[in-house]
Please model this.
Amino acid sequence: MQVQTFCLDNSSPSITRPDFVQDPEKSLVILFGASSFLDSPERVQEVCRTFSGIPVIGCSTSGEVFGSEIKDDCLVGGILQFEWTTVHTATVAIPDPSQSFQVGQQLANDLLRHDLRGILVLSDGLQVNGSELIRGMNAVLPESVVITGGLAGDGDRFKQTWVIRNNVPIGGVVTAVGFYGDHIRLGHGSKGGWDYLGPERRVTRSEGNVLYELDGRPALELYKEYLGDRASGLPATALLFPLALKQDGRDDDYLVRTILAVDETKQSMTFAGNIPQNSLVQLMRGNFDRLINGACEAAFLTKSDNPQNTLAIAITCVGRRLVLGERAEEEIEATLDAFPQGTQQIGFYSYGELSPHAKGRCELHNQTMTLTTISER
Model:
């Protein structure tokens, strides 16, 4: 396998197709760029034309990752030419979040073959219930198939996101690429690093990813009490205070959930993934050192076999960037330093991350550093 990464900005506006890209069935281009490319798609389309005949996948970001740097308003990418592995892409429109489970099933069925080993998913970041999307895929795929990926971002604006379909950035779609054969190696790791804030609360009313009541009180009203003056900046300020969703009430097994929207009339909050009724949740806040250490731990979990020809994809939540501020680049540097020398890294700040925990089925995460390594052996 051969890998090349690139960053297109005003100083480097174009990319030349490398000579090693020869077999379309064993090639893949991955792109991450600003949400503004939805309105001005020319640069994305130019890259797609450069790689005509090659599968190109990609999505919008809340900041692009290139090596150990965070970029904005750029287009970063990775070019992969496999030696043995074949790839196939599938894209499905998602007209409404209520269709997330069915879309996940359709994507999985479109990609399922006997030699499918892994899938990388990139989804619209606003028009989706990430939990249901992954639940639909898990319902179709065998547990041996590794699923990772993320939800497209739009900074702290929550207005528009895009995913590439037919070489054009477009909203309201989910795309995925399947990797086939026995030589592909997909490493994965996902870690948080947040601290708890306040007591545990019981979810007393919810529907899917919409939370209405905690301990019998309107959820938004209670949440605003913790935010204080920051409440006026919702939903963006909610990125600084996500919710921990406890699994069976255990502190060591939880998912993090980020708010996508609030409804003042209903006093409800819409999250990127499900908030099951009767579950326990707890507010969280950032701890600089723990967030950065969490990113480093995620890198160690990936266990790349072939660092000289490995692409690492870092998908990390925009909330982490907002909390870390000027120190945000430290978590990107930490992951690259933890990888074996020679690993190349791209990625993006997202509205949700898709990955298994250390093992098992894929789940939706929020506010984590989630890493995928792609290599062959």
Remarks:
- Helices lie at 42-50, 100-111, 130-140, 219-227, 288-302, 318-324, 328-338.
- Residues 194-286 form a domain with the Thrombin, subunit H fold (CATH 2.40.10).
- The chain has seven helices and 26 strands.
- Residues 288-302 form the longest helix (15 residues).
